[in-house]
Write a structure and sequence with these properties.
- The protein is α+β, with helices and mostly antiparallel strands.
- It has 2 domains: 136 residues, Sandwich (Jelly Rolls), CATH 2.60.120; 66 residues, Winged helix-like DNA-binding domain superfamily/Winged helix DNA-binding domain (Arc Repressor Mutant, subunit A).
- It is built from 8 helices and 11 strands.
- A 4-stranded antiparallel beta sheet has the order 1-8-3-6. The chain has a 4-stranded antiparallel beta sheet with strand order 2-7-4-5. A 3-stranded antiparallel beta sheet has the order 9-11-10.
- Helix 5 runs antiparallel to helix 6.
- It is globular, with a radius of gyration of 19 Å.
- It starts with a helix and ends with a strand.
- The model has no long low-confidence stretch (mean pLDDT 90).
Length: 219
Amino acid sequence: MKKYIEILKQTQLFAGIKDNELSAMLDCLQATIKTYKKGEYIFREGDYIDKITILVQGKLIIQKDDFWGNRSIVSAIRIGEMFGEAYATPDSGAILNDVIAEECSTVISFNIYKLLTMCPSSCRFHSIVIQNLFFAISEKNRKLVQKIGYMSNRSTHAKLLSYLSDEAKKQRSNNFTIPFNRQQLADFLSVDRSAMSKELCKMRDEGLILFDKNRFRLF
């Protein structure tokens, strides 16, 4: 687990925590590590969880399938990102989505009760992590509002432009990589894949974008 200390230091949850403090916290928060093969489920819809989890290797997809098998991509989890916090608190209910390994992935989980309860020594780093958790949840809510913004656009063209524009801003470059393949992007934006592919080609022919698989360039 120690080899992932540098990754954990860069996460939002452990921002401001020193190396020696973070090492101590791994025991205090009952940290556990687990690796999943591509296609394995980290969580399934209906599971009850009591852990906050951070991806330290690989890539995860949060998705939801309806009764007829129609799939919607909620989000992609990248290295250093946290998930499960919305369902880990007491009485929060069962998880509403599936979390699946897009490739071989390793996660580190932390006991939510240990995280939310100050230890007897009232460690400085414990109060910082609780504050960081609040900020992280606020950021997740902002991203959900952002996705609602994509979905509120009526056309596939507008949804694509809105999403790609935000990705360019987030990555501070007009050349960037998105975390989705074509089908996943269509599922994320809730559009038909064929219609989306035609729209992307049309946008390319109009000189708005260039793309190669999940790599994009905006003009």
